[in-house]
């Protein structure tokens, strides 16, 4: 059975991400696994020299297991009170606690389960910009070999009508498009391929590149609701923010390349804009990607 895994620290942002994941799981016929990553509560230098007392771990594990159990039961109870005529699947909610960093535990769980997606909650009002500035989030994104869905604190689950994918018109993105289509198909949603172009967009070579890319997409991806548009801007960040201001979207998908525009898209210069779009989930694919079926 497909699984969505959700890291939680029992914060409101993590709770919100878990609820989003549970609603999404109904549409893609997946179960949800909550986990808490427990770190050694000791100075890193001392941790190398001193064993963590077993009784301390057992106490923490017992307390966290209890909290996870309560939250899982609460999610299942909320689900039982909801009626959705569009989907009849009722996901199971399981949980675990593991020792290690969020990055390591997430990667290990993804490797050992049939994981379709990792859903992670974002904190603070300027959620994405601050999230990306944090060492934990950057580490997860950089090391992920799985799709990662980032849920801002104001995001509530909405049926997906339009998913936008920021494309570089690269043939290697075809696998990513296959993956997004497998998600869009569950909702009969549109997939909008968006490329940010500068003034060179009128040049013959550029238009030929666009035409070739779209021909490959049409021939290799069997889905009738794929559309394309150029957004004219010399700056990728501003081009995407323009799109978010002028088009109703339920999700934005991107490929994460180290040192690319992903971090810059959500930097402090766009704080006000992101505050206005604080409810937009961002689906991040690793640069080296194989097609994932949601």
Automatic annotation (TrEMBL):
Domain UspA: 1-152
Any matching Pfam family: Usp
InterPro entries: Rossmann-like_a/b/a_fold (IPR014729), Universal_stress_UspA (IPR006015), UspA (IPR006016)
PANTHER family in UniProt: STRESS RESPONSE PROTEIN NHAX, UNIVERSAL STRESS PROTEIN UP12
Family: Belongs to the universal stress protein A family.
Name of the protein described by the UniProt record: Nucleotide-binding universal stress UspA family protein
């Amino acid at each position: 059975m497909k699984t969505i895994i959700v890291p939680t620290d029992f914060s409101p942002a993590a709770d919100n991400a878990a609820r989003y994941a549970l609603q999404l799981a109904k549409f893609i016929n997946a179960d949800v696994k909550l986990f808490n990553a427990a770190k050694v509560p000791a100075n890193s230098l001392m941790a190398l020299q001193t064993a963590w007392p077993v009784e301390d771990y057992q106490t923490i594990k017992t307390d966290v297991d209890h909290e996870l159990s309560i939250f899982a039961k609460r999610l299942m109870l909320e689900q039982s009170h909801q009626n959705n005529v569009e989907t009849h699947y009722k996901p199971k909610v399981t949980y675990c606690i593991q020792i290690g960093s969020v990055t390591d535990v997430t990667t290990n769980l993804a490797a050992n389960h049939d994981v379709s997606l990792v859903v992670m909650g974002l904190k603070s009002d300027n959620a994405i910009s601050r999230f990306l500035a944090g060492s934990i989030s950057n580490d997860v994104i950089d090391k992920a070999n799985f799709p990662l869905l980032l849920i801002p604190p104001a995001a509530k689950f909405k049926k997906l009508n339009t998913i936008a994918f920021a494309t570089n018109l690269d043939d290697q993105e075809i696998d990513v498009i296959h993956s997004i289509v497998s998600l869009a198909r569950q909702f009969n949603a549109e997939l909008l391929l968006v490329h940010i172009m500068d003034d060179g967009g009128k040049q013959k070579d550029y238009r030929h590149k666009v035409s070739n890319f779209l021909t490959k997409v049409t021939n290799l991806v069997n889905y009738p609701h794929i559309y394309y548009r150029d957004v004219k801007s010399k700056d990728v960040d501003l081009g995407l923010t323009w799109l978010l201001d002028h088009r109703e979207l339920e999700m934005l998908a991107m490929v994460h390349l180290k040192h690319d525009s992903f971090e810059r898209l959500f930097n402090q210069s766009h704080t006000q804009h992101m505050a206005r779009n604080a409810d937009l989930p961002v689906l991040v694919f690793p640069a080296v990607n194989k097609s994932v079926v949601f």
